[in-house]
Amino acid sequence: MAKWLAKVKDSFTKIPKNIRVLAFGWLVWSPVQAMAGPYTQLYVSKLGASPEDISLVQSATQIANSFSRLLGGFLSDKYGRKKILWIGTLLVAGTYLLMAIAPDWQTYAISNVLNGISLFYQPALEGIQADSVPISLRGRMNAILSLVPGLASSLSPLGGAYLVNIFGIVEGVRIIFFLSFLTGIITALSRLFWIEETITTKDTINASGNFLFSYIDALRKISHETYLLMTTDILLNLVGAMTFLGNYYMYYYLEVDKNGLAILATVGSVVNLLLLLPVGKIVDTRGRNFSITLGFLLGTLSQVIFVLAPPSSWLTLPLLLLSTTIGSVAGVFYGLAYSSLRADLVPKEYRGRVYALWGLFPSFTWSLGALIGGWMYNNLGPTSPFVSSLLLRLLLSPLLLFWYRQLTYKVDEVIRSFEGS
Length: 421
What we know:
One of its GO terms (cellular component) is membrane. This is Major facilitator superfamily (MFS) profile domain-containing protein. This protein is mainly alpha-helical. The protein has a single domain, classed as Growth Hormone, Chain: A, CATH 1.20.1250. The protein has helices at 2-14, 17-36, 40-46, 51-79, 82-100, 105-118, 122-131, 138-153, 156-194, 211-221, 224-241, 246-252, 258-285, 288-308, 316-345, 351-380, 384-420.
């Protein structure tokens, strides 16, 4: 037992300090946030929002976040990551308090948009994560960063189900948002006291640097592969956002009850959790192309099964469970490969600005996709956005699979050289 504990301690100390601090924050915060996941759309609908209103709220939040990330990315590269990170985290925590006391969906919408603006710190967070890990370990470190909150969050939807069953959807979700406020404060303080700055003075933008020209300079320095990955992100955000009303659809059309939604979310979390470490190693050893391609194909299969699930049938929940399981496997492969590849392609001193730009156009297309999906749900029938999204994904598949091979080739060559040395 003593040897095992010593081995665990040794493995823990080998993890970069910043990764440990980020993991701690997500360990504290993510489980509480995950409790609300299956019920947020239902909460907003109980406050008086229609399906189109729900899509509009999320679209406005995405657009607000896109623009705020531009400022956050600039500040992150100019003044360093740490200050931007902890201040932004504190502001996000405050927005959860506003969501908890919202009397109607319009007030919730304002709170949610403020949440999106407060996430201006995301380029700083993504920059710290990428800066702190070498290329040969990114898949595994990204897996660890997902594993820790996943361990705590895997059963969170069941806790959410307990609260909404006891207090009702509105009061139950209010309690969860208040708890998100408290744990967000703890996360902000941990980042203030323990995060170490990763960008040095020589790496930062010159103090007289112009906001616009600093972004133009960053765009000039990034590779063709980076632009290609951005383009795939834009397309998938547009198509994927059309299915934004998934929980609403399952609850109101497929007639999956509150406990069923919690079970689906829990299964997805557990599958994700079990696969993170082995898939992280695969991403670092088999290369990015294998993992991102497999993730995309499995994600498409998951969506096919979801669309085939009938309403109010004995087959409904089993098919949704199968779709969720396959989708979770897909998400682990695609997500770890994607986040690792993005860090591989962007030079350290430009990550704040490039990551900010990276979120801009995909956010606009996501917002457009969500609005289209909400309109289709209301006007063409509940199944229309999900079927349309699937058909578009199938049409794009040959192009995207070709691009994945192109944009991963150089990185996978570097990874193979590490394996051979």
